[in-house]
Prior knowledge:
The complex is a heterotrimer of chains A (286), B (430) and C (289). Chain B has 430 residues and is α/β, with parallel strands linked by helices. Chain B is 45% helix and 13% strand. Chain B has two domains: 191 residues, 3-Layer(aba) Sandwich (D-Maltodextrin-Binding Protein, domain 2); 167 residues, 3-Layer(aba) Sandwich (D-Maltodextrin-Binding Protein, domain 2). In chain B, the strands form five sheets. Chain B has a five-stranded mixed sheet with strand order 2-1-3-13-6. The longest helix of chain B has 17 residues. Chain B is globular. Chain C has two domains: 61 residues, no CATH class; 204 residues, MetI-like fold (Orthogonal Bundle). The radius of gyration of chain C is 25 Å and the shape is flat. Classes of the chains: A mainly alpha (286), B alpha/beta (430), C mainly alpha (289). Chain B: It comes from Rubellimicrobium roseum.
Amino acid sequence: MRRRNITAYGFLAPYLLIFAAFWVWPIIYSFWLSFLFTRRQPWTFNPNTTWGRLVEDPAFWNALKNTLVILVVQVPIMIALATVLAVLLNSTLLRARGLMRFAFFAPVVVGEVAYAAVFRLIFSEDLGFVNKALAAIGLPEVAWFSSPTAAMALIIMAVTWRWAGYNAIIILSGLQSIPDDVYEAATLDRVSPVRQFFFITLPLLKPVILFCVVLSVIGTMQLFAEPFLITNEGGPGSATETLGLFLYLQGFRVLNFGYASAVAYTIAALAVLISLLNMWAGRERA
Amino acid sequence: MRRAAALAPLMLGLVAASGAARAQEATGEITIWSWDIAAAALERVAQDFMAQNPGVTVTVEDLGNQQVFDRTLAGCAAGGADLPDIVSVENHEAEIFWAQFPDCFADLTTLGYDETAAGAFPEFKRTELMAGDAVYGMPWDSGPVVVFYRRDFYENAGVDPSTIATWDDFIAAGQKVQEANPGVSMTQGDLNGDTEWFRMLANEQGCGYFSNDAASITISQPGCVAALDTYKKLVDAGLVGAANWGEKISSNNAGTVASQLYGGWYEGTIRTGVPADQAGKWGVYQMPSVSADGARAANLGGSALAITSASDAPEAAFAYLQYALGSSEGQVTMLREFGLVPSLLTAVEDPYVQEASDFWGGQAVWQDVLATLPNINPSRGTPFFGDADAILRTVQTGFLNGEYESAQAALDDAASQIEAVTGLPVAAAQ
Amino acid sequence: MTTLPAAAPLRSRSRARSRLWRAILLHAVMVPLALLWLLPLWLMFVFATMPDQGIFSPGINLLPQDRFMENVRALEAETGFLRTFVNSVLVALVYTALSVLLTSMAGWALVRYRFWGKGLVLAIILGTLTLPYFVVVIPQYILVARDLGLTNTWFALIVPPLFNSLGVLFMRQSFSMMPQELFDAARVEGVKEWQIFTRVALPMAKPTLAALSIILFLASWNNYLWPLLVATQSHMMTAPVALGSLIGLTRVSWGAIMAGAVLLTAPMLLVFVFLQRWFMSGITAGAVK
Lengths: 286, 430, 289
């Protein structure tokens, strides 16, 4: 048994070492940091400037609000779209399936910076592609970067474009694990495809969809590159500033490590809480 | 300090002899971080400098304004590693560096930057570059604000810029200009959240984020309220097209904007950037004021150069500073070719300033720009500039989108937020 | 679909007609949606071949022009993009190799051995799955940048991101589905534990290793935040960091930035097209518990 222990930990050692150095230690250190005033050398113990400020800081609440808006609006839209996409892509009636899959799944491999650059360019207010296209079909141009609502819509569209296919892949794999005879029986009983979707497919997909929701929640909680690069650091003003971006700006623009650590802990706690809530809600109805 | 004393006589000679004497001994490779046209200017001066100092190699890296700030701060946080020898620092952000990382920069007084050398620059450029007895930056340029405008667009609308004295005049003129020139915006602003317009208007009205002793928050004072109100009036009148720095340049080139409000350093950006067929079509006039007899001068931007403590060749770096910034030769070259407004007092008196320019339709623009210098109110950045600016970004966007009842309410909110973050008191209402 | 019984011609005709209508409806939805989804990528390629006057011309232009190489040259002149591209390749390759090795070793230990603390190790791995990376990024940065002074090193780019729990779970699942008797037999024959792992188990896990490698490579290739923090000098930047630093710079044309985006994206699109099967199984790995 003891030799087993040694061999097992031999295999685990490099992995756990990295874990200890770059996760365990930082998590502990970060907790300590979150009580320090770090704006001036030397750092002093003063939780009023971190946790105390967090409670009252409108900028933090604004970032939290923006993140929750994305969570409540974008995540359901994207998951619904991904589910519909997965079902339609799985249809035997669909032609050019390879090309279709490519269209929706390709964004998954596109990096944040590359796609952020593209979105920033095509949504340019002055002579950008989207505004030119809108004008061409007689619609008014939209102030994508100056209007808070439009900028938020832009972020939501961008994130949906990037991640809908990713979730569709996961849901598709869940779909393919549903045995065909379930549908055959339903078809013989003349259950319409729409009813099949709601009464057979959806309930069977529930665990997979739940998994997608949890992933999306964690992703949204740390959304950073999109508002950083597309709407130019969360603009207009801070209308698209997310928790992830707020943390970055506090941590690495103002170098307020103590405050940023308190923000980081709050983000983590919220992510875990919302994930648990999702799982609990999912289990309840299953 | 002792070392400084020993070097002082040498340095005095240096200032008089335009930097060449001392620099002959200086050798080494120096790297500079800067941005946009400022980087181009440093590069150009570096050619002359290297011709006189064969032992020194100067490399200028143009990273863009925000990147220079971010990476310098990150480099200092990492203990000074990976920094270049010289960094460009905007005056209003300078104190952020000295407050958090005094050890990151070389005290220029130890390199020979004494009272005489420092006295060659105006007082308002020097305050933010000092911390206690130490001096961390040498002043470079300043940004007296004027309106750059397209003569042809104004003429099409029958608008004479010399009749524009107030912002209300500007709005009336703007409506005519936009009517007479379809597809052209009267002016542009970064509605994504930049605070430049507010800072220019507020500075004109003698107001800023903080008091000049950096001891209290003044953002809710009447001058700032008038500034924010004026900006909203301009935006609501539909005269401010949304454009960031890069988009403004595209619009200048494409001929879709009639005026830009900026510091004098924008002269070079326009002159060296626009297509040749726009030569002679541009002009300059004084910024309008809030009231008919109000002030018509403000400053935006203006930078300094600092030497990092990580530099391997601080003497060579300092020699470069002395040539580029401390000599009329260097500063006038940058003015002539890139439109950077010198803050060195002797350079302001250079005959070049009196020359009329063909590009500017025969106007002696520098005379007009520099004439506003004596009327500029000083404005202190303080170590908290970044915090205050981020808060104003948010509040300004909220105000422009109708979330506040009045500019006063918006700025009261901003002031109390800045108070919470900085711990400084809000100045009493006047 | 199962074949229809030949004895029901009438019913089958109406079913065929309803199938046709459903097919038309399906394509009426999917074709425009697919085109909309392809548009940003298509525009990226098109704009990469245009000068800025073309991109910002008043008309809408959807066809590529011939300026791609000029844009690439402009990009190279601005940032030394080639160098950052090579950096990205090196970082991603070394990262992938190390991470695959580390996670498969850990996954192996969790399948093959009973040992003290096994439950705890598993719990930690599962627990970190829902933990956002942001909670460690600041202290990680302080540790690497300030305490160790390792900014702009290969170590900083590659090692701290190595920890990932999904890989361990993926490998663990793969190993656990193998016939354990095979390993027991090898052990009885006196093969060393390390060799059982490298000579017997790893070769059997090839499909999983391929899928995991692709996902890890992609993650490293596209990683932005961490390299942004630790690579501050041009010569150590990865390609996404270099490209990100150009967004919003005036002297860099959008055509050049789009050319960079194409160079970053095209290799991964090829990987996606040609290795789709492994790619998909890598992505779905997490979902299969």
